[in-house]
Every structure is written in structure tokens, then in C-alpha cells.
Amino acid sequence: MTIKVGKNEAGQRLDLFLLSRLPKVISRSFLQKLIRDGQIKVNDRLEKPSYKVKANDVITLPDRPMPHQIEISPEPIELNVLYEDSDIIVVNKPAGMIVHPIPSHTSGTLVNALLYHCKDLQGIGGELRPGIVHRLDKDTSGVMVVAKNDLAHRSLSQQFKNREVFKMYLTLVQGKPEKTEGEIQISVARHPTLRVKMTVASEGRIAVTFYKVLKSFDDLASLVAAYPKTGRTHQIRVHMKYIKHPILGDKLYGRADPVPVERQMLHAAILQFRHPRRNERMKFIAPLPEDFKDALRRLHEESSK
After folding, report:
1. Residue 64: pLDDT above 80?
2. pTM for this entry
């Protein structure tokens, strides 16, 4: 499917131009996601949603750029709540839980649980992602903050956008990095053929992660603290693979593990941000889950042999 920009349409943002030309059931956020995922191109090039279209630009889209209609139901799923007030709720998400519904997975998500727990989330930030301002991969555990009203959603979204939020992850990676600490800065983009995967690409979006090795288990594996300065999809996972030390249990980017694990050993341990109403700095720590602690114990045993 292609759309050609007319002379009178030049100068508009790409996302707003498409919003005006496509069926009204398509949201701006959905279009922005398609653009960032590389599914929409301008003259066969990847552009940002903010790109200003020019006369005679040819925009290529998927044949059916239509969001699936998903009905979301509140579900009485247990939540590990670290903090809650009238503006925000902070939870420790377990590994294995998807944050928001997708066409192939419409129940058992964090959003289903939040809609049951918080009666005022519906519609904040969009019907499919009410209150969600950031996310963790399905098999990543740890701390997340969710907005409970529009004021909180705007404030938190802006803090994430301006990189004012401090995030620290703990991860177990294969091998022993040569440098005990460093900064990884590379551009990442959606893989051209494997759409579930990200890859290093010069035309992608810049991603920056600082890392520090906390402990090494001989040459088997290392416990690493990762501090992402940006928030790209699969960022830490791609970065660890890039420096040739993929995360244990990462089926998408990893390889054979020194000890068997059931999921990627990545845990969002610390999250700091300003309270959206009180403006005070808040810090939340999510304790390590049992499977992560078990992997640490087994690595210690293996390295002690």
C-alpha cells in the first residue's frame, strides 16, 4: 500500500499526515509504532514520526495497517504492589507476564490485573495500554510504575522522554567481560526479516547503556548492573549480545548457557522518578526473584568446582 504526498500536504509531520489520510479507527500512537518499527517507509527510507513530508514523497505502508480490536477485561490477578496512592501504582512484575494485551494474548496481562485493582485506569494513555508509560519484556521481571490519572501519565511520560528517570537492571550474562565497566552506544532497529527481533543498524535509533560487572563466576558468567540511558526495545539484551556477552536464558539473542535457566536473567531492580504531583524524588527497589537467586547459587557452585 502506497500513499503519495500532494503539494498542499507538504510540511506536515509524517504521523499526522497519515492520520489524516487513513481510516479514523487508526490512532496516532499506533501509526508512530508502525513508523518506529520500520513498517512504514518514505521513499524506501526509514524516517521518524516527526519527519516533515514533502510534495511527491511516496509512503509505503503494510497492506492492512489496521489495529486489531481487542476487548480487555479486568481479571483478579495477584499483584506485587510496592507502592500506591491516588496518582500512581508501582508494581514488581513477575517474569512471564506480558504488560499489555496483544491480539494473540488478551488475558493474564498486567493491564488485565491493573483494571481489576485500579478502577480508574480505563482510557488513560489509550484503551490497550491504560496508565502504561513504560514496559518490560514478558520474561523480564522487576519494578514498573503505572499512572492512575492524566496528570500522572503526562508527567511520567515526559520524565521518561527527557531521560530524567533512573533505571538499574541486574542481569546474568555469559562469560566475563574484558572491561569491568563501560558505556555501549549503538543504533538499533527492527530486524529487516525477523520482526520480533532488534538488530544493530546504522539507520536505527541510538541506544545508550552504561554497565558495571559486579561479580564474575570464573569465565562461566557474570552478574552485571546495567543502567540504560535510553529506552529502546530489547536494548540491554541487544547491547549485551553486541559486546559478545549475551544474557543467560535469552532465547532470541543468546546461546548455550553454562547453567540451565527457564527465562532471560534480566531484572529491573531500581526505578527512580519524581512524583507527578508532589515533585519529590522517589526510589523503588524490586527484590531479586527466586529463579534469579537460584541461578546465582548454581553459578557459584559450578565456579567453585
Report:
1. no
2. 0.79
